[in-house]
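Q: I have 414 residues here and want to know how they pack in 3D. Can you give me a structure?
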Amino acid sequence: MLHMIWPTPRGWAIGIGGVIWLLVAMINHTLFALLFAWAALALALVSFCCALFSLHGLRISRAPASDACVGQMLSLPLQIENSRWRRRQPLVVIENLPFTNDKSHYAVLPPMAAKSSRLFDRKVLAIKRGEFKLNHIILRGGDPAGLFYRERRLKLPAALVVYPPSEQLQDLLLHQNEAIHTATGTPLSAAGNSQDFYGVREYTHTDGMRYIHWRSSARYGKFMVKEFERNAVMSVAVILDAQELAVSGGDWSNLEYLIRAAASICHYCSDLYCTFAFAAGGSKPLLVTPKLAAEVKAEVMYDLATLQPGKQQVQHIIDEWARALPRNTVIFALSLSDNLPLRSTLESLQEQGMDLRWFTARKKDFEPAGAKQSKPARRAAADSNAAAAAPSGILTPTFLQPALGIKQAFSSSN
């Protein structure tokens, strides 16, 4: 689709100046004014013709674009071909990219030789997660003097996903018996967690006498025990709360913090031989049944990328989902509040033999300084405070802070 040719501010100045000099020449009959008028009008006419044909003979198509995570540079390549026997001056490519801070992204295409093609790779910093549909791009050309410009609007549909970022986590101690802390806080392995022999090490008070390796003890002059590999199969689940009234404002909201934490846990588990399950509320229920973590990683990351806050409460949708979880599953409950209905649901899971680890990112802790709350938000905050003042029961959440890194928060919880 071709738009009309529009003059630039310089073009308006040259055109109006030429008309003024022409009027002066007609009134005063001066050669000097007439030469200025015809020079300005001739320049405007030549520039108009150059701008008119500046976009003819260009063929543009989208090259495959790769997905990215928030905070990474996203590649948006275009395949551009110049089919004419003339050189092209620099052009401007404009596109509306909703995952960036700027409404429109401008990129300058360098000059192209005659009968040539080029892969124009645009690098954009992804700021917002989600699934985005790209549709139109605008190609803007003009004349060498910069008096006129012309635009062509091209429909080039494409889709891409910007995933939430993740942090590399340390050992999450997914097995209940894989480490025991001493009085000094140093984790000690417990011998005999599986049937696969690993080696021998020095005896600690947490080891059973039946695991002592007497031959090695005699060799080293101190008690040595047989150490075994960790259990091969573990089960991990993540429950994510996305109730819209409990979401804080600003770019770094409590929901975005929890989504990044869930993505970090998913990445951590995908490198292990364990099963992984995921459940989230929000705008719609999201349920992923237990499967090998490496197999469901793509599905979980897509759900996290497209997750939007809503009225769906996660405690109302996990009854059937929780029945599919094996006993002793490590459940990371990531909530926006510690209200009583959610607490009751989590306590029932703990009573069923689940290893529950509850993390809460409250709205008041993540709210930007000086932000004003609406009436529904103030009502939700009052309900949350009332729930927090109620008896807490046997389960206590770990309250997260925006200044606390995800790696630090989850490491300190262990």
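Q: Anything worth noting?
A: The mean pLDDT is 83. The first strand starts at residue 6 and ends at 7.
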